[in-house]
Design goal:
Layout lengths: L3 E8 L2 E11 L4 E2 L5 E5 L5 E4 L2 E4 L3 E7 L6 E8 L1
Parallel strand pairs: 2-8
Antiparallel strand pairs: 1-2, 3-6, 4-7, 5-6, 7-8
Length: 80
């Protein structure tokens, strides 16, 4: 499976995106928006600046980005 795997599904009559991302600790990733909610993962290990997010400890983190038309959900697997 590629590092970034992109899947779209039909949910409640709108398109909802799930993006799976593999990162190393402190590696930065640009989200699709700046307003987000942490669904899963220790928030004390999450850093962000604008739409850019990074993680200071390994683990799995799930973030939902609030979109204008639909929301994107990111599942991050972070390793050392």
């Amino acid at each position: 499976m590629p590092k970034n795997h992109y899947v779209k599904t039909l949910v409640n009559a709108y398109i909802d995106s799930v993006v799976r991302v593999g990162l190393k600790v402190n590696e930065k990733y640009v989200l699709s928006g700046v307003k987000y909610t942490v669904i899963s993962g220790n928030t004390s290990y999450i850093r962000s600046e604008g739409a850019t997010v990074w993680f200071t400890q390994p683990g799995t983190y799930v973030i939902q980005v609030d979109g204008w038309i639909w929301d994107d959900e990111y599942v991050f697997t972070v390793v050392k």
